[in-house]
Amino acid sequence: xSGTDAVMRRVFAVREREAMDAATEAALAGLAARVRExxxxxxxxxxxxxxxxxVAAEVAALAARLNxxxxxxxxxxxxGGNGLVRQLANPVSGALNPVAPPVEIEFTPxxxxxxxxxxxxxxxxxxxxxxGGVSAMVLDQLLGAAAAANGTPGMTATLELRYRRPTPxxxxxxxxxxxxxxxxRKTWADAVIAGPDGRTTVEATAxxxxxxxxxxxxxxxxxxxxxxxxRG
Length: 232
Ligand SMILES: CCCCCCCCCCCC(=O)SCCNC(=O)CCNC(=O)[C@H](O)C(C)(C)COP(=O)(O)OP(=O)(O)OC[C@H]1O[C@@H](n2cnc3c(N)ncnc32)[C@H](O)[C@@H]1OP(=O)(O)O
Prior knowledge:
Belongs to the THEM4/THEM5 thioesterase family. 29% of the residues are buried. The chain has one domain (1-232): Roll (Thiol Ester Dehydrase, Chain A), CATH 3.10.129.10. It contains 4 helices and 8 strands. Strand 1 and strand 2 form a beta hairpin. The strands form 2 sheets. A 6-stranded antiparallel beta sheet has the order 3-4-6-7-8-5, covered by helices on one side. A two-stranded antiparallel sheet has the order 1-2. It is α+β, with helices and mostly antiparallel strands. The site of dodecyl-COA has 20 residues, from helix 4 and strand 5.
C-alpha cells in the first residue's frame, strides 16, 4: 500500500463496498450515459402534456425495474490505480452517476490537477450560463483532488469563490487546481475555471483539514463515517 493510498483510506475511512466486476461497471456507465441524455431531453423537451405524461409512466416503470435489485449505498468507494479515492457514483466525476457531467480529473506534471469538460443546459443558472453552485461543486472536487495529489487529502473546511465572468454552458471549459501551502492537518489550494477563450470565469480557494486520526495516531476518523468517501 503506498503512503498516499494509506492516508486516503484513513481520511475518508474508505472500505471496499460490494465488489463490482468490469462488465457490470461498463453496463452501469452506459446506463448512466443514457440517463444523462434523458435528463437533458427532459430539460429541453417541447412535447405536449399527454406525451410527457406517457413518457413519465414509462420512466416510472424503468425506475421500478432498477429498484428490483438495489444496493443500500452507492457503488464502490475504493482506491484507484493512482492511489486516490475512486468514487464511481461521485456527483462530479462518477461515470455511474447520471447527475455527474462527468468531469474527469487528470494529474499534471507540476503536481496539480486539471480537467477539460463541457456542461450542458441541465446545469444552467442564469440564462445561457452555468449555475454558480455547479461551478462551486466542480471546483470543490478539483481542489480536493489537488490536495489528495499533494499527499495531504482532507475534508473541505472552507471554499471561497470569486465569480469573475459568467461561465457559458455548451462550450469547452478547462479547470486547474494546485496546492499552495500545507501546514499540519491543513492544506490550502487554488483553482480556476476558464472559458474557451482561456479567460478565467471563476477563481476558488479552499482549505482542507485532515480529520483527527488520519495520521494513524489511533484516534477516530473525525466525522467521516465508516464507508464514507469524499463528498462535494
Ligand atoms: C481523482 C479523485 C480524487 C478524489 C479526491 C477527493 C475530492 C474530495 C472533494 C470533496 C470534498 C468535500 O466536499 S468534503 C465534504 C464537505 N466538507 C465537510 O463536510 C466537512 C465537515 N467538517 C468536518 O468534518 C470537520 O469540521 C473538519 C474535519 C473540517 C475539522 O474538524 P476537526 O478536525 O475536528 O477540527 P478541529 O480540531 O476543531 O480544528 C482544527 C483546526 O482547524 C480549524 N478549523 C476547523 N474547522 C474549520 C473550518 N470549517 N474553517 C476554518 N477553520 C477550521 C480550527 O480552528 C483549528 O485551527 P487551529 O486552532 O489548529 O489553528
